[in-house]
Amino acid sequence: MKTVQKTLIICLFTIPLCAESQVPPPPPPPPPAGASGHLSRADSLLLAGDVGPAVEEYRNMYPQNRNDRLVIYNYACALSLAGQPDSAISYLEKVVEIGPSVSILTDPDLLAARESAGWEEFENGLVAVLNEKTGNSIKDTEYASSLWRLLCLDQTGFYEMGIAVRNLGPGSPVVTALRRMQALQNEKNLKELEVLLESRGWPEKSQVGSEASEAPFYVLQHSNAAAQEKYIKLFEEACIKNEGDWQQYVLMFDRMRMNQNLPQRYGTHAIMDNRATGEMKLYPLEDESRVDEWRKEKGLEPLNDYLTREGIRR
Protein backbone atom coordinates (compact mmCIF):
# COMPACT_ATOMS: atom_id res chain seq x y z
CA MET A 1 0.00 0.00 0.00
CA LYS A 2 1.72 3.09 -1.19
CA THR A 3 1.33 6.64 -2.35
CA VAL A 4 2.19 7.29 -5.98
CA GLN A 5 5.85 7.69 -5.05
CA LYS A 6 7.33 4.83 -3.09
CA THR A 7 8.63 5.68 0.37
CA LEU A 8 11.40 3.56 1.83
CA ILE A 9 10.92 3.40 5.59
CA ILE A 10 14.23 3.78 7.40
CA CYS A 11 15.43 5.48 10.54
CA LEU A 12 17.79 7.92 8.83
CA PHE A 13 18.08 10.81 11.22
CA THR A 14 17.21 9.52 14.68
CA ILE A 15 17.80 6.39 16.71
CA PRO A 16 16.79 5.49 20.27
CA LEU A 17 19.41 6.12 22.95
CA CYS A 18 19.35 2.51 24.08
CA ALA A 19 18.54 0.61 20.91
CA GLU A 20 18.57 -3.13 21.51
CA SER A 21 19.40 -3.87 17.87
CA GLN A 22 20.01 -2.27 14.54
CA VAL A 23 16.28 -2.38 13.78
CA PRO A 24 14.35 0.33 15.65
CA PRO A 25 10.57 0.02 15.84
CA PRO A 26 9.34 1.65 12.63
CA PRO A 27 6.72 4.37 12.45
CA PRO A 28 3.29 3.32 11.19
CA PRO A 29 3.27 3.23 7.39
CA PRO A 30 1.88 6.40 5.82
CA PRO A 31 -1.75 6.25 4.74
CA PRO A 32 -2.11 5.95 0.96
CA ALA A 33 -4.09 9.16 0.57
CA GLY A 34 -4.82 10.31 -2.94
CA ALA A 35 -4.78 13.84 -4.23
CA SER A 36 -7.79 14.70 -2.10
CA GLY A 37 -6.19 13.31 1.03
CA HIS A 38 -9.10 10.87 1.38
CA LEU A 39 -8.47 7.47 2.92
CA SER A 40 -10.81 4.89 1.40
CA ARG A 41 -12.32 2.02 3.38
CA ALA A 42 -10.12 -0.39 1.41
CA ASP A 43 -7.01 1.62 2.30
CA SER A 44 -8.02 1.70 5.99
CA LEU A 45 -8.57 -2.04 6.06
CA LEU A 46 -5.22 -2.73 4.43
CA LEU A 47 -3.47 -0.33 6.78
CA ALA A 48 -5.05 -2.20 9.71
CA GLY A 49 -3.91 -5.56 8.37
CA ASP A 50 -7.39 -6.79 7.36
CA VAL A 51 -6.12 -7.96 4.01
CA GLY A 52 -9.03 -10.19 2.94
CA PRO A 53 -11.72 -7.55 3.43
CA ALA A 54 -9.41 -4.98 1.84
CA VAL A 55 -9.16 -7.12 -1.31
CA GLU A 56 -12.96 -7.29 -1.51
CA GLU A 57 -13.25 -3.51 -1.12
CA TYR A 58 -10.66 -2.86 -3.82
CA ARG A 59 -12.43 -5.36 -6.09
CA ASN A 60 -15.64 -3.37 -5.65
CA MET A 61 -13.82 -0.09 -6.25
CA TYR A 62 -12.01 -1.19 -9.38
CA PRO A 63 -14.85 -0.90 -11.96
CA GLN A 64 -15.23 2.80 -11.14
CA ASN A 65 -11.47 3.39 -10.93
CA ARG A 66 -10.02 1.64 -13.98
CA ASN A 67 -7.68 4.54 -14.70
CA ASP A 68 -6.76 5.40 -11.12
CA ARG A 69 -3.18 4.25 -10.76
CA LEU A 70 -3.16 4.51 -6.96
CA VAL A 71 -6.30 2.42 -6.46
CA ILE A 72 -5.09 -0.26 -8.87
CA TYR A 73 -1.63 -0.31 -7.33
CA ASN A 74 -2.95 -0.68 -3.79
CA TYR A 75 -5.29 -3.41 -5.06
CA ALA A 76 -2.26 -5.26 -6.46
CA CYS A 77 -0.42 -4.86 -3.15
CA ALA A 78 -3.43 -6.24 -1.26
CA LEU A 79 -3.64 -9.22 -3.61
CA SER A 80 0.04 -9.96 -3.11
CA LEU A 81 -0.28 -9.73 0.67
CA ALA A 82 -3.33 -12.02 0.47
CA GLY A 83 -1.29 -14.70 -1.27
CA GLN A 84 -2.68 -14.13 -4.77
CA PRO A 85 0.53 -13.28 -6.68
CA ASP A 86 -0.73 -14.04 -10.19
CA SER A 87 -3.70 -11.73 -9.76
CA ALA A 88 -1.40 -9.10 -8.25
CA ILE A 89 0.84 -9.19 -11.32
CA SER A 90 -2.13 -8.88 -13.67
CA TYR A 91 -3.13 -5.62 -11.97
CA LEU A 92 0.48 -4.43 -11.84
CA GLU A 93 0.53 -4.73 -15.61
CA LYS A 94 -2.39 -2.30 -15.69
CA VAL A 95 -0.43 0.02 -13.40
CA VAL A 96 2.52 -0.07 -15.79
CA GLU A 97 0.24 0.87 -18.69
CA ILE A 98 -0.87 3.97 -16.78
CA GLY A 99 2.47 4.96 -15.28
CA PRO A 100 5.55 2.71 -15.12
CA SER A 101 7.83 3.11 -12.11
CA VAL A 102 10.93 1.29 -10.93
CA SER A 103 9.63 1.53 -7.35
CA ILE A 104 7.27 -1.35 -8.15
CA LEU A 105 10.35 -3.58 -8.19
CA THR A 106 11.35 -2.71 -4.62
CA ASP A 107 8.00 -2.67 -2.82
CA PRO A 108 7.92 -5.20 0.06
CA ASP A 109 4.12 -5.46 -0.19
CA LEU A 110 4.77 -7.21 -3.50
CA LEU A 111 7.18 -9.81 -2.10
CA ALA A 112 4.79 -12.70 -2.73
CA ALA A 113 4.29 -11.54 -6.31
CA ARG A 114 8.06 -11.13 -6.69
CA GLU A 115 8.59 -14.75 -5.61
CA SER A 116 6.03 -16.14 -8.09
CA ALA A 117 6.78 -17.77 -11.44
CA GLY A 118 5.39 -14.84 -13.41
CA TRP A 119 7.55 -12.13 -11.83
CA GLU A 120 10.62 -12.45 -14.06
CA GLU A 121 8.58 -11.89 -17.22
CA PHE A 122 6.77 -8.96 -15.60
CA GLU A 123 10.02 -7.38 -14.41
CA ASN A 124 11.67 -7.76 -17.81
CA GLY A 125 8.68 -6.11 -19.44
CA LEU A 126 8.67 -3.23 -16.98
CA VAL A 127 12.40 -2.65 -17.39
CA ALA A 128 12.00 -2.59 -21.17
CA VAL A 129 9.26 0.05 -20.84
CA LEU A 130 11.35 2.11 -18.43
CA ASN A 131 14.43 1.95 -20.65
CA GLU A 132 12.42 2.98 -23.69
CA LYS A 133 10.97 5.89 -21.74
CA THR A 134 14.28 7.05 -20.19
CA GLY A 135 16.74 6.40 -22.98
CA ASN A 136 18.26 3.19 -21.63
CA SER A 137 18.93 4.49 -18.10
CA ILE A 138 19.22 0.92 -16.76
CA LYS A 139 22.14 -0.60 -18.66
CA ASP A 140 23.25 -3.41 -16.35
CA THR A 141 19.84 -4.98 -15.85
CA GLU A 142 21.22 -8.15 -14.24
CA TYR A 143 22.99 -6.25 -11.46
CA ALA A 144 20.06 -3.86 -11.10
CA SER A 145 17.66 -6.79 -10.65
CA SER A 146 19.72 -8.19 -7.77
CA LEU A 147 19.81 -4.76 -6.12
CA TRP A 148 16.07 -4.18 -6.50
CA ARG A 149 15.48 -7.52 -4.79
CA LEU A 150 17.76 -6.52 -1.90
CA LEU A 151 15.91 -3.21 -1.50
CA CYS A 152 12.63 -5.11 -1.33
CA LEU A 153 13.98 -7.52 1.28
CA ASP A 154 15.49 -4.66 3.28
CA GLN A 155 12.02 -3.16 3.74
CA THR A 156 10.21 -6.45 4.35
CA GLY A 157 8.47 -6.65 7.72
CA PHE A 158 7.80 -2.96 8.31
CA TYR A 159 4.14 -3.30 7.28
CA GLU A 160 3.60 -6.21 9.65
CA MET A 161 5.56 -4.59 12.46
CA GLY A 162 3.59 -1.37 12.07
CA ILE A 163 0.36 -3.32 12.54
CA ALA A 164 1.76 -5.05 15.63
CA VAL A 165 3.01 -1.78 17.16
CA ARG A 166 -0.35 -0.07 16.66
CA ASN A 167 -2.42 -2.96 17.99
CA LEU A 168 -0.16 -4.41 20.68
CA GLY A 169 2.25 -1.62 21.61
CA PRO A 170 6.01 -1.33 21.00
CA GLY A 171 6.82 -3.48 24.03
CA SER A 172 4.78 -6.46 22.87
CA PRO A 173 6.61 -9.81 22.61
CA VAL A 174 5.16 -10.06 19.11
CA VAL A 175 6.96 -6.82 18.16
CA THR A 176 10.15 -8.11 19.80
CA ALA A 177 9.93 -11.34 17.80
CA LEU A 178 9.35 -9.42 14.58
CA ARG A 179 12.36 -7.22 15.32
CA ARG A 180 14.52 -10.29 15.83
CA MET A 181 13.33 -11.77 12.55
CA GLN A 182 14.07 -8.50 10.81
CA ALA A 183 17.56 -8.43 12.31
CA LEU A 184 18.16 -11.93 10.92
CA GLN A 185 16.95 -10.77 7.51
CA ASN A 186 19.31 -7.79 7.73
CA GLU A 187 22.24 -10.16 8.34
CA LYS A 188 21.23 -12.25 5.34
CA ASN A 189 20.86 -9.14 3.18
CA LEU A 190 24.33 -7.98 4.19
CA LYS A 191 25.89 -11.30 3.18
CA GLU A 192 24.18 -11.12 -0.22
CA LEU A 193 25.26 -7.52 -0.68
CA GLU A 194 28.88 -8.32 0.14
CA VAL A 195 28.93 -11.05 -2.50
CA LEU A 196 27.60 -8.55 -5.04
CA LEU A 197 30.04 -5.82 -4.08
CA GLU A 198 33.02 -8.16 -4.17
CA SER A 199 32.10 -9.51 -7.60
CA ARG A 200 30.55 -6.46 -9.27
CA GLY A 201 31.88 -3.44 -7.39
CA TRP A 202 29.88 -0.54 -5.98
CA PRO A 203 26.86 0.00 -8.26
CA GLU A 204 26.93 3.18 -10.35
CA LYS A 205 23.64 4.94 -11.00
CA SER A 206 24.59 5.51 -14.64
CA GLN A 207 24.67 1.73 -15.06
CA VAL A 208 21.90 0.37 -12.81
CA GLY A 209 19.67 3.43 -12.36
CA SER A 210 19.26 5.69 -9.35
CA GLU A 211 17.08 3.44 -7.21
CA ALA A 212 19.14 0.27 -7.61
CA SER A 213 22.33 2.22 -6.89
CA GLU A 214 20.95 3.11 -3.45
CA ALA A 215 20.61 -0.51 -2.31
CA PRO A 216 24.05 -0.72 -0.62
CA PHE A 217 23.27 2.38 1.45
CA TYR A 218 20.00 0.99 2.81
CA VAL A 219 21.38 -2.47 3.53
CA LEU A 220 24.54 -1.11 5.16
CA GLN A 221 22.56 1.44 7.16
CA HIS A 222 20.82 -1.54 8.77
CA SER A 223 24.07 -3.44 9.37
CA ASN A 224 27.00 -2.78 11.71
CA ALA A 225 30.06 -0.59 12.14
CA ALA A 226 32.46 -3.15 10.67
CA ALA A 227 30.51 -3.46 7.42
CA GLN A 228 29.98 0.29 7.20
CA GLU A 229 33.67 0.98 7.73
CA LYS A 230 34.60 -1.67 5.17
CA TYR A 231 32.60 -0.03 2.39
CA ILE A 232 32.47 3.66 3.29
CA LYS A 233 35.46 4.45 1.05
CA LEU A 234 33.84 2.79 -1.96
CA PHE A 235 30.71 4.82 -1.29
CA GLU A 236 32.75 8.02 -1.11
CA GLU A 237 34.51 7.23 -4.39
CA ALA A 238 31.15 6.69 -6.08
CA CYS A 239 29.90 10.04 -4.80
CA ILE A 240 33.06 11.81 -6.05
CA LYS A 241 32.30 10.42 -9.52
CA ASN A 242 28.69 11.62 -9.19
CA GLU A 243 27.59 7.98 -9.11
CA GLY A 244 26.37 8.11 -5.51
CA ASP A 245 24.36 10.36 -3.20
CA TRP A 246 26.34 12.61 -0.82
CA GLN A 247 23.42 12.99 1.59
CA GLN A 248 23.18 9.24 1.95
CA TYR A 249 26.95 9.07 2.36
CA VAL A 250 26.96 11.48 5.32
CA LEU A 251 24.09 9.57 6.93
CA MET A 252 26.06 6.33 6.70
CA PHE A 253 29.26 7.99 7.86
CA ASP A 254 27.56 9.37 10.98
CA ARG A 255 25.77 6.08 11.63
CA MET A 256 29.11 4.29 11.40
CA ARG A 257 30.61 6.70 13.93
CA MET A 258 27.70 6.15 16.31
CA ASN A 259 28.02 2.39 15.99
CA GLN A 260 31.70 2.82 16.88
CA ASN A 261 30.71 4.92 19.94
CA LEU A 262 32.48 7.91 18.38
CA PRO A 263 31.19 11.47 17.83
CA GLN A 264 29.43 12.09 14.53
CA ARG A 265 30.89 14.49 11.95
CA TYR A 266 27.93 15.92 10.03
CA GLY A 267 25.22 16.20 12.69
CA THR A 268 22.66 14.02 10.88
CA HIS A 269 21.67 11.88 13.87
CA ALA A 270 19.90 12.57 17.14
CA ILE A 271 19.12 10.45 20.19
CA MET A 272 15.97 10.26 22.25
CA ASP A 273 16.58 12.35 25.37
CA ASN A 274 13.17 11.86 26.95
CA ARG A 275 11.12 8.78 26.12
CA ALA A 276 8.01 10.21 27.79
CA THR A 277 7.93 13.34 25.63
CA GLY A 278 9.82 12.07 22.62
CA GLU A 279 12.28 14.96 22.89
CA MET A 280 15.32 14.51 20.70
CA LYS A 281 18.86 15.69 21.36
CA LEU A 282 21.72 15.99 18.88
CA TYR A 283 24.23 13.17 19.17
CA PRO A 284 27.70 14.55 20.13
CA LEU A 285 29.71 16.16 17.35
CA GLU A 286 33.30 15.53 16.32
CA ASP A 287 34.03 19.27 16.03
CA GLU A 288 31.42 21.98 16.68
CA SER A 289 33.58 24.61 14.99
CA ARG A 290 33.83 22.72 11.69
CA VAL A 291 30.48 20.96 11.39
CA ASP A 292 28.93 23.58 9.08
CA GLU A 293 32.06 23.58 6.92
CA TRP A 294 31.83 19.80 6.53
CA ARG A 295 28.08 19.96 5.90
CA LYS A 296 28.50 22.60 3.20
CA GLU A 297 31.11 20.47 1.42
CA LYS A 298 28.51 17.72 1.10
CA GLY A 299 25.66 20.01 0.05
CA LEU A 300 23.86 20.15 3.41
CA GLU A 301 22.22 23.19 4.98
CA PRO A 302 23.68 24.78 8.16
CA LEU A 303 23.21 22.57 11.19
CA ASN A 304 21.09 25.05 13.15
CA ASP A 305 18.62 25.31 10.26
CA TYR A 306 18.23 21.54 10.25
CA LEU A 307 17.89 21.29 14.04
CA THR A 308 15.29 24.07 14.17
CA ARG A 309 13.20 22.53 11.43
CA GLU A 310 13.27 19.05 12.99
CA GLY A 311 12.78 20.25 16.58
CA ILE A 312 16.08 18.77 17.79
CA ARG A 313 18.01 20.48 20.56
CA ARG A 314 21.76 20.56 20.92
Describe the model.
It is globular, with a radius of gyration of 20 Å. It has a domain of 97 residues: Tetratricopeptide repeat domain (Serine Threonine Protein Phosphatase 5, Tetratricopeptide repeat), CATH 1.25.40. It has a four-stranded mixed beta sheet with strand order 1-2-3-4. Helix 1 runs antiparallel to helix 2 and helix 13 packs antiparallel against helix 14. The longest helix has 28 residues. It starts with 13 loop residues before the first strand and ends with a strand. With 314 residues, the protein is mostly helical. A hairpin with a 4-residue loop joins strand 2 and strand 3. The chain has 16 helices and four strands.
Provide a brief overview of the structure.
This protein is mainly alpha-helical and 314 residues long. The protein contains 16 helices and four strands. It is globular and about 60 Å long.
List the helices and strands and how they pair.
Layout: E1 14-15, H1 41-48, H2 51-61, H3 69-81, H4 85-98, H5 111-114, H6 119-134, H7 141-155, H8 158-168, H9 173-200, H10 205-208, H11 210-213, H12 215-221, H13 225-240, H14 246-259, E2 270-274, E3 279-282, H15 291-297, H16 303-310, E4 312-313
Parallel strand pairs: 1-2, 3-4
Antiparallel strand pairs: 2-3
Helix pairs in contact: 1-2, 2-3, 3-4, 7-9, 7-12, 8-9, 13-14
